[in-house]
Amino acid sequence: MLKQQKKTLIRDLQRSRLIDRRSVVTIGSFDGVHLGHQAILRRVIDQAEQLGSSAVAMTFEPQPQEYFSAQTAPPRLMRLREKIEALLDFGMDTVVCLRFNEALRKLTAEQFVRDVLVGGVNTQHLIVGDDFRFGCDRKGDFQMLVNMGGELGFTVQETQTIEVEQQRISSTLVRQRLEESNFRQVSALLGRPFAITGKVTYGQQLGRKLGFPTANVNLNRFRAPLAGVYAVLVDIEGVGSRLRGAANVGVRPTIGDKVKPILEVHLLNFNQQIYGRRISVEFVHKVRDEKQFASLDDLSASIRDDVTIIEQWFEQTLNP
């Protein structure tokens, strides 16, 4: 299914000349690139192959909901780099990631169609979800796209809701299941296990001093959709085998600044330097919520208990 073509990321419409053919386009946040998204992407790829066109996914950074309500916007399921990689790996020829700013916000629905869809990415065929709305005037909907497509030379296709176990697949539902630590259903909704990826950075070395060295991934502005202590499976760049680990996601209330989120992973039975390498951390079981301890001794004792619980969980679950 995947096409062996050069993959392209476009961050502004001035570079849209890199799309050297007409395009089959879909638009969305694609947070999580879940099965609902994948069904739409598959249709885009199939249609592009039939028409000899480029398969294009258009998204925005920040996501519109974050632009309008940064404090109340829900946590993302994946960081921007992860999303772009997932879209390209799935088979899209091009990802167009436009900065959602005041200029883009002010575009009317008609301006968006003319300037972005037609003038920007040379749309030949557009595939959108059944609830797609756009434009500062909120006039952009499926019927408007059909009408303007007839005028400007592109066709429009609507997709229906995708369900798993009689539930509409959505990023919101995935977040709810993550909050419940229902990793089995999260995997069913995503079509793959939930994981966070990133580069291992230098930390305070406190974990090593406490006897439990950790691989740290700074999440920066990314607010993870889960928090607490987890059993995890870890893939490390350059290391062939998958490793078991104990992870903490959160703001480290005992020793951190209680603001900047971080992912810390203590790898079981592993003692190599991996600073600067990318790791992928798959979450498989929650042990407890993150909490603040009165002293470092109490924190160390809790980590020891957490690691023991996680080691036992792995032995009972993976080696019954």
Give the arrangement of secondary structure elements.
Elements: E1 8-10, E2 23-27, H1 35-51, E3 54-61, H2 64-68, H3 80-90, E4 94-99, H4 102-105, H5 109-118, E5 123-129, H6 142-152, E6 155-159, E7 163-164, E8 167-168, H7 171-179, H8 183-190, E9 195-199, H9 206-209, E10 215-218, E11 228-236, E12 243-250, E13 262-267, E14 278-288, H10 296-318
Parallel strand pairs: 1-4, 2-3, 2-5, 3-4, 5-6
Antiparallel strand pairs: 7-8, 9-14, 10-13, 11-12, 11-14, 12-13
Model description:
- With 320 residues, the protein is of the alpha/beta class.
- The protein folds into two domains: 8-164, Rossmann fold (3-Layer(aba) Sandwich); 193-318, Riboflavin kinase-like (Elongation Factor Tu (Ef-tu), domain 3, Beta Barrel), CATH 2.40.30.
- It contains ten helices and 14 strands.
- It has helices spanning 35-51, 64-68, 80-90, 102-105, 109-118, 142-152, 171-179, 183-190, 206-209, 296-318; strands at 8-10, 23-27, 54-61, 94-99, 123-129, 155-159, 163-164, 167-168, 195-199, 215-218, 228-236, 243-250, 262-267, 278-288.
- The strands form three sheets. The chain has a six-stranded parallel beta sheet with strand order 1-4-3-2-5-6.
- A hairpin with a 6-residue loop joins strand 11 and strand 12 (243-250).
- The protein is elongated.
- The model has no long low-confidence stretch (mean pLDDT 88).
